[in-house]
Specification:
Length: 209
């Protein structure tokens, strides 16, 4: 069992997402899949949170920048955003089956790279969708920090522009698709996840050797 203070934080993050219909659906999927959540300490990682499909666990990185905010009000919007992103991966796992997230030499390296790119783009699209829904529900904090972030503001802008063209895009999936496509315009994000695939493949090869 995780410490009470961590359990309270997980509950608070979950509750902060509840006004979003997309988040409620993702949380239900996680509950059906018996996905657990907690904290781990990994100061070498740049990730705010991680979903490990083999263990069905979402971990927030207690050693990363996410837990270095001075106040709860600064921490919660980003924690919610990372939670929504990782819950997006949970939903992908359910749709993709047991091979999701497993690094295997059965698949061509380029196929794994492209799959990872699309998984990450889609998870960000889900998280932006949640942020928009929370804003519409009178809780704009996640949208505000996302819109003001130099790395992710273009994702929020793509979503908002899509809805400006047609408000129905918020519910027909086109606004999410706009975020997905915008993700590929950030070369640093693309290169980061390409490197993740290469590093994991190298680890598999080292084990075999």
């Amino acid at each position: 069992p995780i410490p009470p203070i961590q359990r309270a934080a997980i509950t608070a993050i979950r509750d902060s997402l509840a006004p979003s219909a997309t988040a409620r659906s993702l949380l239900a999927t996680a509950e059906q899949g018996r996905v657990t959540a907690g904290f781990e300490f990994d100061p070498e990682s740049t990730s705010g949170a991680t979903y490990t499909s083999q263990h069905r666990e979402v971990f927030f990185n207690a050693g990363g920048w996410l837990t270095r905010f001075d106040t709860v009000d600064q921490f919660m919007p980003w924690a919610g955003y990372f939670a929504a992103h990782e819950l997006g991966h949970v939903a992908q796992h359910r749709q993709s089956g047991p091979d999701y997230g497993r690094w295997s030499l059965r698949y061509r390296l380029m196929h794994q790279i492209m799959a990872t790119r699309h998984y990450e783009a889609a998870a960000d699209a889900v998280a932006v969708d949640v942020a928009w829904q929370l804003k519409d529900a009178g809780k704009p904090e996640m949208w505000q920090v996302l819109h003001g972030d130099p790395h992710d503001a273009h994702l929020a802008l793509a979503y908002a522009r899509s809805i400006a063209k047609n408000p129905d895009n918020a519910v027909n999936g086109k606004a999410r698709r706009a975020v997905h496509d915008a993700w590929f315009k950030d070369p640093l994000a693309v290169l980061h996840y390409d490197q993740v695939v290469l590093d994991n493949t190298r680890t598999v090869l080292d084990v075999l050797v």
